[in-house]
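We close this part of the discussion by returning to an individual protein. In the encoding step, the backbone of a single protein was reduced to a row of integers, each denoting a local shape. The sequence in question and its structure tokens are set out directly beneath this paragraph.
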Amino acid sequence: MWTEATKNAVAAVRRPSSRFAAGWRRLWRDEQGATALEFSLVVIPFVAITLAIFETSVLLFNQGVVQGAVSMAARQIRTGQLQAPPGTGPAQQASVLSAFQTQVCNDLYGGFQLTCANLQFDVRSFASFGAVSLPAPTFDAQGNLINSQFNTGGSGQIVTVRVIYLWTTITPGLSALIGPSAGLSNTVTYTVVLRNEPF
């Protein structure tokens, strides 16, 4: 038979565990702060998706700006105003390339993070549209294009004008969707294919 003192001692031993269990039950049923907890679970993906949308929008806007500038400058190649056909000397090619770069850069108004220093050019000529073959861009350790040329072709030839821009992304994972990388930047290429007019 249990004495009154024994019953009190057993109740004292059981009381802390029952208080602990009751506390957990109250905490489990308590819905205060549920919104803050749910927000903390959703905020990181939400911010990442918002940044990705913003950065993709800027990239597409820049693509339109560069494509327009390249199209305007390529028209001068097409009409024979800027010519560096095969066989011309390095000095004349450098002069025509400089004039072409200046024309492109003058039309780069409104682009975000666009600088002429980041634009690299590759102009090639072909005998026909079927002969067009463009190698993948190759870069050195500093991110400079090493397999480029500047050949505006002759009268009636097919000319491809590529402008390659190195874009550094800030959104995690977005760089995998843009294209092959060159160091910490991603390669964004703008291409115009045209046939030179008879000149």
Summary: The mean pLDDT is 79.
